[in-house]
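Q: Here's a chain of 165 amino acids. Please give me its 3D structure as tokens.
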Amino acid sequence: MNELEIELLKLIERNANLEADKIAKLMGKDIEEIRELIKELEKKKAILGYSTLIDWAKVLDKEEVTAMVDVKVTPARGVGFDKVAERIYRFPEVKAVYLMSGSYDLSVSIKGNTMTEIGRFISEKLSTLESVLSTTTHFVLKRYKHDGIILEDNDEEDKRIVVSP
């Protein structure tokens, strides 16, 4: 990767909504050069997709439950954790899977409509996989920052009474 490609990737990582002409201006390059560079990075799979971060807590009647599940597994002979991780990430409820250091092997992010739905997924699908030895589930209660974006600005003045000795 050259510096131009890295600069472009950093720009669109912060704001996937940037148009090619705006990127060209920011980088001091020709718009066609930027379009070709984006196409090339997509072809190389350096750019895998574009997404929008939505604060579902602010959308009426639509707030998903997110759980982070620590999973201890038996790695498969010859392929380690990869086959187990692949089996897990193929479930539509699973939003992310990471190989971790520490007591557990995989960290799995799951989304569902209710805690019961997530619990059912873990007990009926995830825990029943042959290679899964144990799980520990953590439910997300509130998100403050995600992918570098602060979800809730606390512009309100602190109304607590100052206590001094």
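Q: Can you summarize the key feature?
A: The longest strand covers residues 65-73.
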